[in-house]
Amino acid sequence: MFSGSTMKELRILLQTSFTLLILAGSSSGQYVSSGPSLRMDQALLTFHNQLKEEVQVFYTSDHCYECVYQHLASVKPNNNNASVVISTKLTLTVRVEPQTRNSTLCRWSQEYGEGGHYSVWIKMSEATGDPSCAHTVAKRPNNAYLPLVVSALSLAIITLLVVAAPYIYRRRRTSTFFKTICCQCTQYSVDNDGADSSEAEHKPTEAKPTRLRSLDTFRGFALTVMVFVNYGGGGYWFFQHAPWNGLTVADLVMPWFVFIIGTSVVLAFRSMQRRGVSRLQLLRKSTWRTAVLLLLGFCFLNYSPRDGPLSWSWLRVPGVLQRLGFTYFVLSLLQTFWRQREIPLTSHHWWNPIQDVILYWPQWLIIILLETLWLCITFLMPVPHCPTGYLGAGGIGDNGLYPNCTGGAAGHIDRLMFGDNMYRYPTCKELYQTTQPFDPEGVLGTINSIVMGFLGMQAGNIIIFYKGRNVQILCRFLVWAVVLGISAAILSKCTRDGGFIPVNKNLWSLSYVTCMGCFSFLLLAAMYFVSDIRGWWGGQPFIYPGMNSIFVYVGHSLLYFPFSWEMHFQQSHWEWLFQSLWGTALWVLIAYLLYRKNFFLKI
To answer: Rounded to whole angstroms, how far apart are CA atoms 524 and 215?
Structure first.
């Protein structure tokens, strides 16, 4: 533990670093005195009209699919001007039209910089005699990515020091160093249930098996990124969920978590089945875990209640933990009733190259039926006042034709079942100006969450089937990644909005599941190779939150200070990024301390 003087020095160092970060953010550029005080992700755009008629300015975002242009400003004639504050998160398309006739004087697309002051001069061109728009920059924008670069370099230096310090220490103790190289013979088990690994069978003369580090590391990595984006991700748009179609960093973490749930179910249940645990006991265990997850999500992590934490007037029924709990329950049923007791590796059949699929044909049949159900409901179910098979966000999207059709069949089913008791601030609300509630953890998307978890089960089956043959395990992972990646490319046509089924986290679309399945197999393969095969990396620091995932997730969702606070410097990303990194680092530190105390929250 730290001494009192050490803690005092550490506290002074942190306070000094925080002050320097804030000063750097606030002094990155002074605003002109005549303009308004701009906040983070904002710029000032001034239109100067030198024409003899009034003009109207409209805008839309390039990330808003076929959206209706929105009114931005009216500029009176004869050298009048109008200033507006615009968002710098996404690329904007701006159009200038005359007041008296329906035509376009000029049109352009541009991504504006944070804190910049821009001018657009609307005048008659001397060369052609037609109206034109000339752009000038009155104040250069700030470097919005400077805080991110500084943070990345700082984390890289810290990581280098953490890695180099043990290496230097081992080099100083030469005898221990060579002994470690010559005698290292770590064995890894395929049982990643904390209570089960200590009871794995081993001979007295053999090294005691340990958990697969790659699974805990993968889980912890996904959880750490999830905590970071839940704390705001520094306010950067790519660390927040996509408005509708497409992918951002925040859209990656939950399917990774679901994938690892499926892998862990296979390995943990196989361990218990080898120890003679009956089906009834497995059912009791999985039912208890599911009930606890549902209660935690329903009662404690229920966002936006109207009359308090346990408000019945507006108690959100769907949720993240509710979906994880239900997905876990279905996967545990598949593993309990349709597992493969024996693995006939010595048998010779035509289907030997795909035996880890064929031998689980009942599970595959159920998953195919579930996915068929999702496709039929999504594309064949009639929705009142909406086109059949609609996958858009509604609102002002699709030329404003379907304003109340957010989510198509998925949104319609949730509104019928839950009414107002669902998420009312979907990610599409700001950009698409939607009015309908839409829950990203709704009923229809849970079907594809189960499919995502089943892909994780397939990874667990591969680890079991090819235990001890690491080349085959890695090859199988890569084959699955290629197959799923090609499927995602075909379904989405490698575009954001123009595919057969766009990649969409809100809907948990089929292309989203295949795309995230591809990423999951690749990431697991990389971690398995680095951690479990080569032993180059022990998974630190991600392995610590990975072994206490429920504690970290529930804790960061419930507790506020000192992990976050009300921000006062909102002109740039410095304070928000510092807060996000600070809160995430604290939870990783807490998970490490719990690991040292051998405390693991299990349900």
So the answer is: 7
